[in-house]
Amino acid sequence: MISSSNPSSKGDDTDVPKGNAYFADRRAKVDGFIDHHFIWPGTLRLHSAALGWDVLRAPINVILSPVLVLTRIAAMACRQIRLRGIANWVAGRRILLPTAVSRRVEALIATDLLDLPLPQGPAARDPGALSRAVLAAPQFRELIRKRADAAEAQILGQKIADALGDYAGTRLAVAEMTTGLVTLAVGAFVFQALTPGMISMAPGVADAVARTTAIADFPMGQTIGGLWYGIFPTGASPLLVAASVAILVMIGSVFAAFAGLLADPVQSRLGIHRRRLLRLIDTLEMELCGPGDKPFAVREHYYAGCWTFGMSSAAYFGSFGINALLDGLASWYLTQNL
Questions:
Q1: Of 133, 186, 140, which is closest to residue 164 (Cα–Cα)?
Q2: Is 81 inside any structural domain?
Q3: Predicted confidence band of residue 28 (pLDDT cuts 50, 70, 90)
């Protein structure tokens, strides 16, 4: 019995090194994967999938992004108090709506980077297709056999699929920050105002439209109209402001769906894509070869939340908060010294 147990234990010891060698090979392919898919013209091919319903999903996902952050914080808290079952269930919730671009990113990582046998065509849209591809992959077969039972293997496959989904979901946060930066630049250049989002830009756009319309309709001509409304500015009606908000939100939705066309090359040049993919590979390696206690960290959603909060606070204090503070300090000073 002793002689029969030695070969099996030796075989088990060689499984993990084989798995580690596989993931080391995946890391070596990361740079080529980025050059092919995240730099022009690769990112143009990738975003061709955004033509369609992604334009509507983008603003909905921006609204759902804080919910995703809260679920990840709750999952981390559950892990700290050793409620691993609840933590895994909470972390496995797919809060964001899957977009066509995110599905394509998941499929490209699975097939081109991880060499998984992912089905093509309509079968690839099945939510369980990626999990089944993980379980059917020859390179994972020996590692999966070490699981206690089929149920545990199914959980493993789903956790890997969830990690890929979380990676693809980080594109939403990057798109949100890219859209915010562009609107910030446009607001500063055109309106000389702090506009961290499309909605904050609406009053400036509405006022500009109202002024242009009033000058064009001025009875004594546009030249005198420009001088007149330069001295006596006209304001935009609430209806015009509401229309401006609706139009700008639609423009923002389209831009957010295609923001990766700008963000992908920049992230590639700065090494952000590389670090994020290596972080994903570390998570997959830990799930298959280690204890599986290193979930993929969706840091970009936290960054996007901090960005939104910071810009909103800056816009608030920049518009009337600082003025109100100064008025209050002046009133206090006058009452103390008069």
A1: 133
A2: yes
A3: very high
